[in-house]
Design goal:
heterodimer; A: 252 residues; alpha+beta; Alpha-Beta Plaits; three-stranded mixed sheet; 17% strand; B: 161 residues; mainly alpha; 2 domains; two-stranded antiparallel ribbon; 2 strands; 48% helix
Chain lengths: 252, 161
């Protein structure tokens, strides 16, 4: 359990899931609700545990050979071009596309894979310095100021979501600092989310009219993601580990 | 020389030092009251001057003599608030330090990294022999426009009393 915020226990989630059933009462018409979408917090306000950010990935809508989400992430956060001396398997990988294939039928599909922003993140459990942490709004981050680059978190993560920077970098972006000797992963575009925007991958996916990614507050029963999750089945990857991920998949 | 005369001479020196001390101290205070910025002990060190001022009365985001000594405290405080709590105010953000203190190359017009040897951050840090860690990860050049309300140097000087 994270020390940084109040507990995001499953009972609260269950309650909210059930509470979603009564949310229909506040709806004027399907998709139209009395309550306005939550306004962006002002820059001097701290993030709160009343929200939990998540992404729903509908793999049925993922186009073959599409990597719009990956390129958008690279552009927004400035990775993927800066490490010239590292081997490909050492280079940064905040988000990647994975192809899964049914060996019996030969059916294959691609899906994006990144930090799943777990409620009980193994990377936080193993971090010896406290650099790996979970923000109160559910975003799992690395405080690179105190990261010593031991890479325990990379080994602990069941999703292989983290990468380590092996070489000196130059010309980083002001909103996405990154440097040699620290571990990094998807930040859910925390710099955009704090300003009330959506992550770059989600933006790019809907710009391409695929709409395979839905971003929103899992605790708000009126948010698009909560309504989608309630409407049809979705799964956590490696649900057997009981991590309660913030990223969920459909069509697997 | 007898012991007595040595002792007398020593007492004389001691007394004159004690008498002069308050004068030296007052001289220091006088300098401050003139409203001029106290010169730094390392007077042969030169800084690059930013083109903007924070306000008519103040060059930097806090009084300059405070910033010289305590800028690291302001940045450290802001760093933890931003990383852990998502507080993204601009006044003490490192990005705004860079936005203001980076200077352009005269020939190419491109920004020079603030940690380049003769630039604002590096000039003092190398003089004081303090390692400058920030820019191993953080941007060294302005990328997007400042969100602080600055005053151009000329306008600030006109408004100043």
């Amino acid at each position: 359990m994270s020390e940084n915020g109040k507990s995001m226990d499953s009972s609260r989630r269950d309650f909210l899931t059930r509470a979603g059933a009564s949310a229909g009462a506040a709806a004027i018409a399907p998709g139209v609700f009395l309550s306005a979408p939550a306004a962006a917090k002002s820059p001097d306000q701290p993030v709160s545990g009343d929200k939990r950010w998540g992404i729903l990935v509908d793999t049925n809508k993922c186009a073959d050979n599409c990597d719009a989400c990956v390129s958008a992430c690279k552009e927004e956060n400035g990775w993927g071009h800066s490490e010239t001396h590292s081997r490909p398997d050492q280079q940064a990988q905040w988000i990647r596309t994975v192809e899964i294939r049914n060996k019996a039928t030969g059916f294959a599909k691609t899906l994006p894979m990144m930090c799943q922003h777990c409620e009980n993140p193994p990377c936080v459990d193993v971090c010896p310095t406290g650099a790996s942490f979970r923000r109160t709004d559910g975003i799992v981050l690395v405080d690179k100021h105190i990261c010593i680059g031991c890479r325990y978190c990379m080994m602990a993560c069941p999703y292989k979501a983290r990468s380590f920077i092996h070489e000196e970098l130059h010309d980083q972006l002001p909103w996405a600092p990154r440097g040699k000797g620290t571990v990094e992963s998807c930040t859910l575009c925390v710099q955009l989310v704090d300003n009330g925007d959506i992550p770059a991958c989600v933006e790019a996916c809907s710009a391409d009219n695929h709409n395979a990614l839905v971003f929103g507050d899992l605790y708000d029963e009126n948010s698009e993601i909560s309504r989608e999750l309630k409407k049809a089945e979705s799964v956590e990857l490696r649900a057997d580990l009981g991590l309660n991920t913030g990223v969920r998949y459909r069509g697997l | 020389m007898s012991h007595a005369s040595v002792l007398r001479r020593l007492t004389g020196i001691l007394l004159s030092v004690l008498l002069l001390l308050p004068l030296v101290a007052t001289a220091d205070t006088d300098d401050d009251e003139d409203g001029e910025i106290e010169s730094l002990p390392f007077s042969d060190l030169s800084f690059t001057e930013p083109e903007k001022r924070f306000s008519a009365t103040q060059g930097c985001v806090e009084p300059e003599d405070d910033m010289v000594r305590n800028h690291m405290e302001y940045i450290l405080h802001q760093r933890d608030e931003t990383v852990y709590e998502g507080i993204r105010t601009r006044q003490h953000s490192l990005e705004e330090c860079v936005n203001c203190h980076a200077t352009r190359d005269e020939n190419s017009g491109e920004f020079i990294p603030v940690n380049a040897p003769d630039q604002f951050c590096a000039s003092c840090h190398s003089y004081a022999s303090v390692k400058l860690d920030c820019f191993e990860c953080h941007a060294t050049r302005p990328v997007r426009p400042s969100k602080l309300r600055h005053q151009p140097l000329a306008a600030a000087e006109e408004e100043a009393p």
